[in-house]
From TrEMBL:
SMART domains in the cross-refs: 7TM_GPCR_Srsx (SM01381)
Protein species of origin: Chanos chanos
Domain of life: Eukaryota
Lineage of the species this protein comes from: Eukaryota, Metazoa, Chordata, Craniata, Vertebrata
Family statement drawn from the similarity comment of this UniProt entry: Belongs to the G-protein coupled receptor 1 family.
Membrane topology qualifier: Multi-pass membrane protein
Pfam family, one: 7tm_1
Name this polypeptide is given: Trace amine-associated receptor 4-like
One MF annotation (Gene Ontology) recorded for this entry: trace-amine receptor activity
Keywords: Cell membrane, Disulfide bond, G-protein coupled receptor, Glycoprotein, Membrane, Receptor, Transducer, Transmembrane, Transmembrane helix
Domain G-protein coupled receptors family 1 profile: 48-310
Compartment list: Cell membrane
This protein's GO CC annotations: plasma membrane
TM helices/strands, residue ranges: 32-56, 68-90, 110-133, 145-167, 199-218, 259-279, 291-313
Length: 335
């Protein structure tokens, strides 16, 4: 490709190929800072969620229906940090995709799959907390661990079929063929959604589960406040047995609040991205690539925040994390 005049200053992803995409021009210092920040985020995501995985797997006192859901969610977030975020990092900073069209489809499918799996896991957690706090007497029979594991399996299967089915069938591109052909170049990896599938994908992966979670948590907090009023009225005449029951109820309410914070962080992280996904096809895809990448990474940060939230707000995880980290550093020092 011969380049003269102004085009000579343009860097291309594949200079030896005709029709190569231009690379994103950034200052060296900016690129280094972006790589350092994103690599730190990826390491925090992987290591933090590995701590959750090891904690729930190793400590039997954490073997509960809720924590098995959190374990599966941590696996999702860890997989996102290992198999999606590193490649997205290079694409976001360099503005190029170096791994070919086929792996681009696999990457986009995994991205959709893990995003959908995360929100559905959080929806499942909200259902679990609803039964535990609003129907405590029926909880053990209504939410056995076997049923939770079955629901987790269904979520993983549905998200896999949804993510890979949409991307590889290319139903999301119907009606956009001319636009994609005009804007395509060698070294690009962009996931386009037409108007119909922008709405459908956002509803399935985010808005419908988000509404379900919001309604359930409103109900949970209403019941929790009612419990607090009942306990305050009985505080002068409680027996030892009642004190134990009250302590158990307080733990349940605190767990519900913690998980509500997890859900709230998820909504704050992903809401801008999904709103943009719905609106963008109706404004002829006018959203700048840089802004869209920033929204994607803002969504990825949710996977980094989850284990941090558990460490600060969930006492059982605090103790497990301390034991694991203490043993790890003691073994390193002895070596």
């Amino acid at each position: 490709m011969n380049q003269t005049g102004e085009t000579a200053a343009v860097l291309f992803c594949f200079p030896h190929l005709q029709g190569s995409c231009p690379r994103t021009l950034r200052l060296y210092v900016t690129r280094v800072a972006m790589y350092a920040f994103m690599l730190t985020t990826i390491l925090m995501t992987v290591c933090g969620n590995l701590l959750v995985i090891i904690s729930v797997s190793h400590f039997k006192q954490l073997h509960s229906p809720t924590n098995f859901i959190i374990l599966s969610l941590a696996v999702v977030d860890c997989c996102l940090g290992c198999f999606v975020m590193p490649f997205s990092m290079v694409r976001s900073i360099e503005g190029c995709w170096y791994l070919g069209k086929h792996f681009c489809k696999v990457h986009s499918s995994l991205d959709m799959m893990f995003c959908t799996t995360s929100i559905l896991h959080l929806c499942l957690v909200s259902i679990d907390r609803y039964w535990a706090i609003c129907h405590p007497l029926q909880y053990r029979t209504a939410v056995p661990i076997s049923k939770v594991i079955m629901c987790i399996g269904i979520i993983w299967l549905f998200a896999f079929v949804f993510g890979f089915g949409v991307v590889f069938s290319e139903v999301n591109k119907v009606g956009l063929e001319a636009l994609i052909l005009m804007s395509s170049c060698v070294g690009s990896c962009a996931l386009f959604f037409n108007k119909e599938w922008g709405i459908i994908a956002s509803l399935v992966a985010f808005f419908i589960p988000g509404v379900v979670m919001t309604c359930l948590y409103i109900k949970i907090f209403h019941v929790a406040r009612k419990h607090v009023r009942v306990i305050s009225n009985r505080v002068a005449t409680v027996s030892f047995h009642e004190l134990k029951n009250q302590a158990s109820e307080q733990r349940e309410r605190k767990a519900a609040k913690t998980l509500a914070i997890v859900m709230g962080v998820f909504l704050l992280c992903w809401l801008p991205f999904f709103i943009t996904t719905v609106i963008d096809p109706f404004i002829n895809f006018m959203t700048p690539v840089g802004i869209f990448d920033a929204l994607v990474w803002f969504g990825y940060f949710n996977s980094t925040f989850n284990p941090i939230i558990y460490a600060f707000f969930y006492p059982h995880f605090q103790k497990a994390f301390k034991v694991i980290l203490t043993n790890f550093f003691c073994n390193v020092n002895t070596v």
